[in-house]
Design a protein that fits this description.
alpha+beta; about 450 residues; nine-stranded mixed beta sheet; six-stranded antiparallel beta sheet; 15 helices
């Protein structure tokens, strides 16, 4: 059973800051060095100083990094830059955004922020859908130990075909938002407070039988589990560590948007395009795309639009992956109809083996290019990009040898595999837009209580 709770959110005191968009950030794992520098310039109270602070030359390991985060956090509370709600609430959270790659298409994703009791995956209440890496979890655990606060939210999906839970917030969300801002991607974020005990109770009860799927935040969820275990192991009797902050979004909403994450491959010692094609032909039908008359910027972008459309069309019939190596070398690889994935990938259930991202990793990255799973986990020979044309530009600019371009993973595949206990490769999905950090903070030492 899913146990949802309201809480007294810690949040920015808007009387002490110039504007919310100066202090709120994207999630820590989406903050590039360039974004970090910009956030630092925006405000001395920007949350980046806590969730992704700068390394100092004199730091011993990373300890000082987390110590500075703790000192800033406590200082901001003491000087009322951050203040607590006086009563527990759940917080409807809406995001209005333009769908990337679809000019003029605007959607609204509706959810609500609350606490959820941490459950091991074995309990089959919270279900994961992607693999995680140890490095980010170790980093987040150190931050959690020193600050005892959750600054970002786990993104959890639940099923509610009739939208009865969203209906509970209709009257509240007609009013002016408690917090609202536009982020750097032109997404409008609006948050309200739902503190009425009867409303909260109805939502809590309606959520109780739900199965939850982690859309984003696997590392943060597993960090919270690890911290809960840490508290128990060290004799810390702390009910608050049994919970984590999350935004809950229903799977059936038309505002749920999944983008693909493309793979860019670099630093292979002996990459050869013709050898790659010959090896791939054993498993894939290969469609050569026409070579553009010119190369570079605008033409690459225009070629990318055509490429994207052709890849989407191919993907409606069978698993298909785009590959681009520059100089007009662009193909669509569609899994041959006579290929038996059950024989080829006997260790995987068919529901996983049929996914484009799995076929890319197991058949192309591992077997054709020889990039083993450990190298993938360590990102030795690849990195990930959201934008189709950005991946192509990396190849054109000589920063990569080849890029692989994907269609989005369908939500049905995410849901069904998560409920079945099947885990997909890391970055199989990119739920857009991201949930901002700092709108609400779950402070485990809040003297007012949960």
């Amino acid at each position: 059973m899913a146990e949802i709770r309201p809480f007294r959110a810690l949040h920015y005191n808007q009387g002490c800051i110039s504007a919310l968009d100066k202090v709120i950030t994207q999630p820590y794992d989406k903050i590039s060095p360039e974004m970090q520098a910009r956030y630092y310039e925006l405000s001395p109270y920007n949350l980046v100083r806590i969730i992704r602070g700068r390394q100092a030359a004199a730091d011993a390991g990373q300890e000082s990094l987390y110590t500075r985060a703790q000192l800033d956090f406590r200082d901001w509370i003491e000087h009322r830059i951050l203040i607590s709600e006086s009563e527990p609430a759940i917080y409807p959270y809406y995001q209005q955004f333009q769908v990337p790659g679809k000019p003029g298409v605007t959607k609204v994703r509706r959810g609500f922020i609350g606490l959820v009791r941490l459950e091991d995956y074995a309990a089959r209440v919270v279900h994961r859908h992607e693999e995680t890496l140890s490095g980010p979890k170790a980093d987040r655990l150190e931050l959690l130990k020193t600050t005892r606060a959750h600054f970002g939210q786990i993104f959890l999906l639940y099923s509610d075909p009739d939208g009865t839970i969203e209906t509970e917030f209709e009257s509240i969300t007609r009013d002016k938002p408690w917090q609202d801002l536009q982020d750097e991607y032109a997404t409008i974020h609006s948050v309200w407070r739902a503190a009425d005990p009867s409303t909260v109770e109805r939502v809590v009860e309606a959520m109780r039988p739900k199965k939850l799927v982690i859309a984003d935040g696997h590392h943060r969820y597993e960090t919270a589990l690890a911290y809960c275990d840490y508290c128990r192991a060290h004799g810390i009797n702390d009910e608050r560590s049994d919970y984590v902050m999350a935004t809950f979004v229903r799977m059936e909403t038309d505002g749920l948007t999944i983008l693909p994450t493309h793979r860019v491959v670099h630093s292979l010692p002996d990459f050869d395009w013709q050898r790659f094609i010959r090896s791939a032909q054993a498993t894939f039908d290969i469609e050569q795309l026409p070579e553009p008359e010119e190369s570079r910027s605008a033409v690459v972008f225009q070629a990318g639009l055509v490429f994207q459309e052709k890849l989407a069309n191919a993907g409606r019939e069978r698993p298909s992956i785009g590959a681009y190596a520059g100089q007009g070398r662009a193909v669509i690889l569609s899994l041959r109809k006579d290929v038996d994935l059950q024989l080829l990938l006997p260790d995987l259930p068919l529901s996983v083996a049929h996914l484009d991202v799995v076929i890319l990793h197991r058949l192309l990255l591992e077997r054709v290019l020889g990039i083993d799973r450990q190298a993938v986990r360590e990102e030795r020979n690849l990195h990930y990009l959201r934008e189709f044309d950005d991946a192509m530009h990396q190849v054109e600019n000589g920063d990569a040898q080849i890029c692989f371009l994907l269609n989005p993973t369908p939500i049905e595949a995410v849901r069904d595999n998560a409920f079945a206990g099947h885990v997909l490769p890391q970055k199989s999905t990119d739920f857009y837009p991201k949930l901002l950090s700092g709108l609400t903070i779950y402070w485990l030492d809040n003297p007012a209580g949960i």
